[in-house]
Amino acid sequence: MLRFRSLGSGSTGNALLVEARSGARTSRLLIDCGFNLRQLEARLARESLAPSQLDAVFITHEHSDHIGCAHLLSQRHGVAVWMSEGTWLATGAPDYAGRLHFARDGQPIDVGGALELMPFTVPHDAREPLQLRCSDGARTLGVLTDLGHASPYVMTRLADLNALVLECNHDPDLLARSSYPPFLKRRVGGNFGHLSNGAAAAIAQAVHHAGLKHLLAAHLSEQNNRPEIVRHALAEALGAREEEMLTADAAGGSPWLDV
Fold first, then answer.
1. May I ask the CATH architecture of the domain 2-258?
2. Domain boundaries of the chain, sorted by first residue
3. Which of 156, 159, 226, 228 lies most in the core, judged by the most C-beta atoms within 10 Å?
4. Edge-to-edge, what's the strand order for the sheet holding 2-8?
């Protein structure tokens, strides 16, 4: 059994909890922990979980809304942390006391015996960003946030998914009219920035198939996007009803979704 839920997603912080069960074994992975430790502990407590019950944390890249309290979490609770070597170097190469493991594109990672990760590179303005395929052997969840565009290689990593967490960061018109300075608008909307709703909808349409059970829109900009705009764009691309489209928010994330 494979399931997931967002603990919070947006420009101010991101964390995604993934669980896989095989017999009596349960593997728990936190993808990103872009909050301070107290906030993260409180969000886990809502699920009746303590940080020590996590098998590992996977950090996609070094930006603060993703790496957050990773180092303190590992120090305080002894949690193993996976990230690329580039991400580790970009954060100043801190000492994780033997609990740090380097992830690499295309090299599988076993988490707790019931969950396998397959990292893949994405075009984003970070040193060595990675996104993920997560599988329990029967079902596969794709996680695709923080990238400026979907390269042909990225699209190959999205084949045959049973669920997808997909960045829908901004509406171009809202971004253009926002108070962001020009350089930040160019960065967000650029090829190494973040996905617009239209770009995300095109990805969703390209990878959609009968076996894709869940599509969760994530990393919505609080200033430059609206959930209703996202739902409309995705529904139009998939020929679905807007009320069927799911979005994660910054405060509550999403409900549990079984893959």
1. 4-Layer Sandwich (3.60)
2. 2-258
3. 226
4. 100-102, 81-83, 56-58, 25-31, 15-22, 2-8, 257-258
The C-alpha atoms of residue 146 and residue 192 are separated, in whole angstroms, by: 9
- Output the pTM of the full model: 0.97
**Residue whose structure tokens are 């912080």:** 13
CB 40 within 8 A of CB 57: no
135-144 burial, b for 16+ CB within 10 Å, e for fewer? bbeebbbbbb
**151, two tokens:** 């390269």
At position 110, the amino acid (one-letter code) is D
pLDDT score at 1: 94
Report phi then psi at 98, rounded to 5: 85, 0
Structure tokens at 257: 């979704």
Express each pLDDT in 86-114 by its tens digit. Answer: 999 999 999 999 999 999 999 999 999 99
Provide the residue count of the chain. 259
Which amino acid does the sequence have at 30? Answer: L
Cα separation, 7 vs 209, whole angstroms: 27
